[in-house]
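1st attempt posting a full record on here, be nice pls
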Amino acid sequence: MRALDEVIARRLQTDVVLVGQVARYIITAGGKRLRPALLLLLCQALGYRGEQRFNLAAVVEFIHTATLLHDDVVDDSALRRGRPTANQAFGRPASVLVGDFLYSRAFQMMVEAQSMAIMGVLADATNVIAQGEVMQLMNMKDAALDEQGYLQVIRSKTAKLFEASARVAAILAGAPPELEADCATYGQALGTAFQVIDDVLDYTGDVSLTGKNLGADLREGKITLPLILAMRKGSTAQRALIEQAIETADCSRIDAVLEVVAQTGALQAALEVAAVEAHRAAEATRRLPDGPHARALLKLPTALLQRQC
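the predicted structure (as C-alpha coordinates):
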Protein backbone atom coordinates (compact mmCIF):
# COMPACT_ATOMS: atom_id res chain seq x y z
CA MET A 1 0.00 0.00 0.00
CA ARG A 2 2.96 2.33 0.56
CA ALA A 3 4.13 1.59 -2.97
CA LEU A 4 0.61 2.38 -4.18
CA ASP A 5 0.66 5.71 -2.33
CA GLU A 6 3.96 6.57 -4.01
CA VAL A 7 2.48 5.90 -7.46
CA ILE A 8 -0.62 7.96 -6.63
CA ALA A 9 1.47 10.91 -5.42
CA ARG A 10 3.69 10.79 -8.50
CA ARG A 11 0.84 10.53 -10.99
CA LEU A 12 -1.09 13.40 -9.40
CA GLN A 13 1.71 15.81 -10.28
CA THR A 14 0.59 18.47 -12.74
CA ASP A 15 1.49 22.03 -13.66
CA VAL A 16 -2.10 23.08 -12.99
CA VAL A 17 -2.08 23.90 -9.28
CA LEU A 18 -5.82 23.63 -8.66
CA VAL A 19 -5.98 20.16 -10.21
CA GLY A 20 -3.36 18.88 -7.78
CA GLN A 21 -4.99 20.60 -4.81
CA VAL A 22 -8.45 19.16 -5.40
CA ALA A 23 -7.21 15.67 -6.30
CA ARG A 24 -4.95 15.43 -3.25
CA TYR A 25 -7.73 16.82 -1.03
CA ILE A 26 -10.08 13.95 -1.77
CA ILE A 27 -7.52 11.16 -2.22
CA THR A 28 -5.90 11.92 1.16
CA ALA A 29 -9.28 12.12 2.93
CA GLY A 30 -8.86 8.77 4.66
CA GLY A 31 -10.66 6.41 2.28
CA LYS A 32 -10.51 2.65 2.76
CA ARG A 33 -8.58 1.97 -0.49
CA LEU A 34 -10.48 -1.31 -0.60
CA ARG A 35 -10.60 -1.63 -4.39
CA PRO A 36 -6.85 -1.26 -4.97
CA ALA A 37 -6.18 -3.43 -1.90
CA LEU A 38 -8.37 -6.13 -3.48
CA LEU A 39 -6.36 -5.95 -6.70
CA LEU A 40 -3.06 -6.18 -4.80
CA LEU A 41 -4.24 -9.04 -2.57
CA LEU A 42 -5.37 -11.07 -5.56
CA CYS A 43 -2.13 -10.40 -7.42
CA GLN A 44 -0.23 -11.75 -4.42
CA ALA A 45 -2.58 -14.73 -4.06
CA LEU A 46 -2.12 -15.59 -7.75
CA GLY A 47 1.66 -15.16 -7.68
CA TYR A 48 2.02 -11.94 -9.68
CA ARG A 49 4.74 -9.63 -8.34
CA GLY A 50 5.22 -7.25 -11.28
CA GLU A 51 5.26 -3.47 -10.90
CA GLN A 52 2.13 -3.08 -13.01
CA ARG A 53 0.06 -4.16 -10.02
CA PHE A 54 0.81 -0.82 -8.34
CA ASN A 55 0.11 1.17 -11.50
CA LEU A 56 -3.25 -0.52 -12.05
CA ALA A 57 -4.19 -0.33 -8.38
CA ALA A 58 -3.68 3.43 -8.68
CA VAL A 59 -5.82 3.44 -11.84
CA VAL A 60 -8.65 1.81 -9.90
CA GLU A 61 -8.33 4.34 -7.09
CA PHE A 62 -8.35 7.25 -9.56
CA ILE A 63 -11.50 5.95 -11.25
CA HIS A 64 -13.17 5.53 -7.87
CA THR A 65 -12.11 9.00 -6.72
CA ALA A 66 -13.44 10.57 -9.92
CA THR A 67 -16.83 8.98 -9.27
CA LEU A 68 -16.82 10.39 -5.72
CA LEU A 69 -16.12 13.90 -6.98
CA HIS A 70 -18.96 13.69 -9.49
CA ASP A 71 -21.30 12.00 -6.97
CA ASP A 72 -20.88 14.78 -4.44
CA VAL A 73 -21.66 17.41 -7.06
CA VAL A 74 -24.77 15.56 -8.27
CA ASP A 75 -25.96 15.01 -4.69
CA ASP A 76 -24.87 18.48 -3.53
CA SER A 77 -23.27 16.71 -0.57
CA ALA A 78 -21.68 18.83 2.13
CA LEU A 79 -19.71 16.14 3.97
CA ARG A 80 -17.65 13.10 3.03
CA ARG A 81 -15.68 11.14 5.61
CA GLY A 82 -16.44 13.77 8.20
CA ARG A 83 -15.09 16.82 6.37
CA PRO A 84 -16.34 19.20 3.68
CA THR A 85 -16.62 17.66 0.23
CA ALA A 86 -14.40 18.94 -2.55
CA ASN A 87 -17.33 20.79 -4.10
CA GLN A 88 -17.85 22.59 -0.78
CA ALA A 89 -14.15 23.39 -0.42
CA PHE A 90 -13.32 24.26 -4.04
CA GLY A 91 -16.64 24.70 -5.85
CA ARG A 92 -18.68 22.52 -8.17
CA PRO A 93 -16.89 23.38 -11.45
CA ALA A 94 -13.48 22.48 -10.00
CA SER A 95 -14.82 19.18 -8.64
CA VAL A 96 -16.33 18.14 -11.97
CA LEU A 97 -13.24 19.09 -13.97
CA VAL A 98 -10.78 17.44 -11.58
CA GLY A 99 -12.95 14.33 -11.74
CA ASP A 100 -12.49 14.45 -15.50
CA PHE A 101 -8.74 14.85 -14.98
CA LEU A 102 -8.63 11.73 -12.81
CA TYR A 103 -10.59 9.70 -15.35
CA SER A 104 -8.28 10.77 -18.17
CA ARG A 105 -5.14 10.21 -16.08
CA ALA A 106 -6.40 6.73 -15.24
CA PHE A 107 -6.79 5.95 -18.94
CA GLN A 108 -3.29 7.27 -19.65
CA MET A 109 -1.93 4.92 -17.01
CA MET A 110 -3.86 1.83 -18.07
CA VAL A 111 -2.37 2.12 -21.56
CA GLU A 112 1.04 1.52 -19.94
CA ALA A 113 -0.01 -2.03 -19.04
CA GLN A 114 -0.03 -2.77 -22.80
CA SER A 115 -2.95 -5.17 -22.41
CA MET A 116 -6.07 -4.81 -24.51
CA ALA A 117 -7.84 -7.21 -22.13
CA ILE A 118 -7.14 -4.99 -19.12
CA MET A 119 -8.09 -1.85 -21.03
CA GLY A 120 -11.32 -3.52 -22.07
CA VAL A 121 -12.21 -4.51 -18.51
CA LEU A 122 -11.53 -1.03 -17.07
CA ALA A 123 -13.18 0.84 -19.95
CA ASP A 124 -16.26 -1.36 -19.63
CA ALA A 125 -16.35 -0.86 -15.86
CA THR A 126 -16.12 2.92 -16.19
CA ASN A 127 -19.01 2.93 -18.64
CA VAL A 128 -21.17 0.66 -16.47
CA ILE A 129 -20.49 2.83 -13.42
CA ALA A 130 -21.69 5.89 -15.33
CA GLN A 131 -24.85 4.04 -16.35
CA GLY A 132 -25.39 3.04 -12.72
CA GLU A 133 -25.16 6.67 -11.68
CA VAL A 134 -27.82 7.58 -14.24
CA MET A 135 -30.05 4.70 -13.08
CA GLN A 136 -29.77 5.97 -9.52
CA LEU A 137 -30.68 9.46 -10.69
CA MET A 138 -33.74 8.08 -12.48
CA ASN A 139 -34.77 6.25 -9.31
CA MET A 140 -34.67 9.34 -7.10
CA LYS A 141 -37.91 9.80 -5.13
CA ASP A 142 -39.38 6.64 -6.68
CA ALA A 143 -41.02 4.68 -3.87
CA ALA A 144 -41.87 1.87 -6.32
CA LEU A 145 -38.21 0.80 -6.66
CA ASP A 146 -37.92 -2.87 -5.68
CA GLU A 147 -35.04 -4.99 -4.42
CA GLN A 148 -34.13 -6.21 -7.90
CA GLY A 149 -33.91 -2.64 -9.21
CA TYR A 150 -31.84 -1.61 -6.20
CA LEU A 151 -29.39 -4.48 -6.72
CA GLN A 152 -29.07 -3.60 -10.40
CA VAL A 153 -28.02 -0.08 -9.44
CA ILE A 154 -25.47 -1.04 -6.80
CA ARG A 155 -23.96 -3.79 -8.95
CA SER A 156 -23.42 -1.19 -11.64
CA LYS A 157 -22.52 1.81 -9.51
CA THR A 158 -20.41 0.16 -6.80
CA ALA A 159 -19.76 -3.54 -7.33
CA LYS A 160 -18.59 -3.17 -10.94
CA LEU A 161 -15.29 -1.55 -9.95
CA PHE A 162 -14.68 -4.26 -7.32
CA GLU A 163 -15.34 -6.84 -10.02
CA ALA A 164 -13.01 -5.07 -12.46
CA SER A 165 -10.25 -4.79 -9.84
CA ALA A 166 -10.41 -8.52 -9.21
CA ARG A 167 -10.53 -9.43 -12.90
CA VAL A 168 -7.56 -7.16 -13.70
CA ALA A 169 -5.50 -8.95 -11.04
CA ALA A 170 -6.35 -12.31 -12.62
CA ILE A 171 -5.39 -11.05 -16.09
CA LEU A 172 -2.09 -9.66 -14.80
CA ALA A 173 -1.34 -13.02 -13.20
CA GLY A 174 -2.19 -14.95 -16.36
CA ALA A 175 -4.88 -16.93 -14.55
CA PRO A 176 -6.91 -19.43 -16.58
CA PRO A 177 -10.42 -18.35 -17.67
CA GLU A 178 -12.27 -20.26 -14.93
CA LEU A 179 -10.12 -18.73 -12.20
CA GLU A 180 -10.48 -15.27 -13.76
CA ALA A 181 -14.26 -15.77 -13.64
CA ASP A 182 -14.03 -16.78 -9.97
CA CYS A 183 -12.08 -13.61 -9.21
CA ALA A 184 -14.69 -11.49 -10.99
CA THR A 185 -17.48 -13.22 -9.03
CA TYR A 186 -15.59 -12.57 -5.80
CA GLY A 187 -15.24 -8.88 -6.61
CA GLN A 188 -18.86 -8.42 -7.61
CA ALA A 189 -20.20 -10.23 -4.53
CA LEU A 190 -17.82 -8.38 -2.21
CA GLY A 191 -18.76 -5.02 -3.72
CA THR A 192 -22.46 -5.78 -3.43
CA ALA A 193 -22.12 -6.76 0.24
CA PHE A 194 -20.03 -3.65 0.86
CA GLN A 195 -22.71 -1.34 -0.54
CA VAL A 196 -25.57 -3.04 1.28
CA ILE A 197 -23.70 -2.64 4.57
CA ASP A 198 -22.98 0.98 3.66
CA ASP A 199 -26.71 1.53 3.17
CA VAL A 200 -27.51 -0.14 6.50
CA LEU A 201 -25.00 2.12 8.26
CA ASP A 202 -26.91 5.09 6.87
CA TYR A 203 -29.65 4.13 9.35
CA THR A 204 -27.59 2.67 12.21
CA GLY A 205 -24.08 4.10 12.02
CA ASP A 206 -22.19 6.25 14.48
CA VAL A 207 -21.91 9.71 12.92
CA SER A 208 -18.42 10.16 14.38
CA LEU A 209 -17.30 7.03 12.50
CA THR A 210 -19.28 7.22 9.26
CA GLY A 211 -18.78 10.96 8.79
CA LYS A 212 -22.37 11.54 7.70
CA ASN A 213 -25.70 12.07 9.42
CA LEU A 214 -28.20 9.24 9.81
CA GLY A 215 -30.70 9.17 6.97
CA ALA A 216 -28.41 11.09 4.62
CA ASP A 217 -29.43 8.92 1.67
CA LEU A 218 -33.11 9.71 2.22
CA ARG A 219 -32.30 13.42 2.45
CA GLU A 220 -30.74 13.11 -1.00
CA GLY A 221 -33.78 11.24 -2.37
CA LYS A 222 -31.98 7.88 -2.59
CA ILE A 223 -34.01 4.72 -2.01
CA THR A 224 -31.86 1.98 -0.51
CA LEU A 225 -32.51 -1.56 0.68
CA PRO A 226 -33.48 -0.73 4.30
CA LEU A 227 -36.31 1.50 3.06
CA ILE A 228 -37.43 -0.98 0.40
CA LEU A 229 -37.62 -3.78 2.99
CA ALA A 230 -39.27 -1.55 5.60
CA MET A 231 -42.05 -0.73 3.12
CA ARG A 232 -42.46 -4.43 2.31
CA LYS A 233 -42.59 -5.50 5.96
CA GLY A 234 -44.39 -2.54 7.53
CA SER A 235 -48.04 -1.77 8.14
CA THR A 236 -50.09 0.31 5.73
CA ALA A 237 -49.45 3.41 7.85
CA GLN A 238 -45.72 2.71 8.09
CA ARG A 239 -45.48 2.17 4.35
CA ALA A 240 -47.36 5.41 3.69
CA LEU A 241 -45.00 7.31 5.98
CA ILE A 242 -41.92 6.06 4.13
CA GLU A 243 -43.48 6.55 0.69
CA GLN A 244 -44.29 10.17 1.51
CA ALA A 245 -40.78 10.79 2.82
CA ILE A 246 -39.28 9.29 -0.34
CA GLU A 247 -41.52 11.03 -2.84
CA THR A 248 -41.19 14.46 -1.24
CA ALA A 249 -37.62 14.10 0.10
CA ASP A 250 -39.16 15.50 3.27
CA CYS A 251 -36.83 14.82 6.17
CA SER A 252 -38.91 16.59 8.81
CA ARG A 253 -40.01 13.15 10.04
CA ILE A 254 -36.66 11.41 9.63
CA ASP A 255 -36.80 10.18 13.25
CA ALA A 256 -40.15 8.47 12.55
CA VAL A 257 -38.72 6.86 9.41
CA LEU A 258 -35.68 5.63 11.33
CA GLU A 259 -38.01 4.13 13.93
CA VAL A 260 -40.04 2.29 11.29
CA VAL A 261 -36.89 0.93 9.66
CA ALA A 262 -35.81 -0.41 13.05
CA GLN A 263 -39.24 -1.75 14.09
CA THR A 264 -39.96 -3.68 10.89
CA GLY A 265 -36.79 -5.75 11.02
CA ALA A 266 -35.66 -4.20 7.74
CA LEU A 267 -32.11 -3.71 8.97
CA GLN A 268 -31.68 -7.36 9.90
CA ALA A 269 -33.23 -8.41 6.59
CA ALA A 270 -30.78 -6.15 4.73
CA LEU A 271 -27.89 -7.64 6.71
CA GLU A 272 -29.05 -11.08 5.61
CA VAL A 273 -28.88 -9.97 1.97
CA ALA A 274 -25.32 -8.76 2.58
CA ALA A 275 -24.46 -12.07 4.27
CA VAL A 276 -25.64 -14.02 1.22
CA GLU A 277 -23.34 -11.92 -0.98
CA ALA A 278 -20.46 -12.35 1.48
CA HIS A 279 -20.92 -16.13 1.37
CA ARG A 280 -20.96 -16.00 -2.45
CA ALA A 281 -17.65 -14.12 -2.36
CA ALA A 282 -16.11 -16.62 0.07
CA GLU A 283 -17.17 -19.54 -2.12
CA ALA A 284 -15.41 -17.95 -5.09
CA THR A 285 -12.03 -18.22 -3.33
CA ARG A 286 -12.05 -22.03 -3.33
CA ARG A 287 -9.82 -22.40 -6.39
CA LEU A 288 -7.24 -19.83 -5.30
CA PRO A 289 -3.83 -21.29 -4.43
CA ASP A 290 -3.61 -21.70 -0.66
CA GLY A 291 -1.56 -19.08 1.16
CA PRO A 292 -1.82 -16.07 3.47
CA HIS A 293 -3.28 -13.79 0.80
CA ALA A 294 -5.94 -16.28 -0.23
CA ARG A 295 -6.84 -16.78 3.44
CA ALA A 296 -7.11 -13.00 3.87
CA LEU A 297 -9.45 -12.84 0.88
CA LEU A 298 -11.56 -15.61 2.45
CA LYS A 299 -11.88 -13.61 5.70
CA LEU A 300 -12.51 -10.24 4.08
CA PRO A 301 -16.24 -10.69 3.26
CA THR A 302 -17.06 -11.59 6.88
CA ALA A 303 -15.02 -8.64 8.12
CA LEU A 304 -16.99 -6.31 5.85
CA LEU A 305 -20.24 -7.48 7.42
CA GLN A 306 -18.97 -6.26 10.78
CA ARG A 307 -17.68 -2.87 9.74
CA GLN A 308 -18.86 0.24 11.54
CA CYS A 309 -17.79 2.92 9.05
